[in-house]
């Protein structure tokens, strides 16, 4: 089993990255392989709504061949997926949003490539706006039918300068609990394989509210 964590921050050693490392260390202690990748310092174009990924059905973004296409195979191969972001104006940072918009749209329109994986979200924030960003990350997991893992509180940890999160003792407990819960869910799914039939997926139906 493997958990892939995506650091949306442009800082590979900032509070978001360190938060994900704490979580992944707990997962590793349960005997599960992990990998942390930073994408916030990459040049990633936003989705342009061309829908060619839905047309071509090859599991790739047709508009831009960049970090999104590079990481999609890793995301698809992983058993668990963790999304981490800093908080910019009470939301996730722009590069992370561009990455998630495209990666998750490819998954959604190509038969649910990330469907039924175990997912979790983490945000690091100086003061406020953390729950709004946390909710934003969870929207990607839930629309893609990932089984979202919770912790003992919202998955938000506080700090400004790199390393200040270690003074947020409740936040550290949240991350460790999340790591254990994530590992537990992965083991449940593994033990259920071959014994419990996964739910079937229905064909996509889209509607709008213009009459």
Please, could you describe this protein's structure?
This protein has 211 residues and is of the alpha/beta class. It has one domain (2-192): Flavodoxin domain (Rossmann fold, 3-Layer(aba) Sandwich), CATH 3.40.50. The chain is 40% helix and 17% strand. The chain has 6 helices and 7 strands. The chain has helices spanning 15-29, 52-56, 67-77, 94-109, 130-143, 169-192, and strands at 2-7, 33-38, 80-88, 91-92, 118-125, 147-148, 156-158. Strands 1, 2, 3, 4, 5, 6 and 7 form a 7-stranded mixed β-sheet that branches. Strand 1 (2-7), helix 1 and strand 2 form a beta-alpha-beta unit. Helix 1 packs across helix 6. The radius of gyration is 17 Å and the shape is globular. The termini are far apart. The model has no long low-confidence stretch (mean pLDDT 97).
Summarize this, please?
The protein is an alpha/beta fold and 211 residues long. It has helices at residues 15-29, 52-56, 67-77, 94-109, 130-143, 169-192, and strands at 2-7, 33-38, 80-88, 91-92, 118-125, 147-148, 156-158.
Give the helix/strand layout.
Layout: E1 2-7, H1 15-29, E2 33-38, H2 52-56, H3 67-77, E3 80-88, E4 91-92, H4 94-109, E5 118-125, H5 130-143, E6 147-148, E7 156-158, H6 169-192
Parallel strand pairs: 1-2, 1-3, 3-5, 5-6, 5-7
Antiparallel strand pairs: 3-4
Helix pairs in contact: 1-6, 3-4
Give a quick set of tags describing it.
alpha/beta, Rossmann fold, single chain, 6 helices, 211 residues
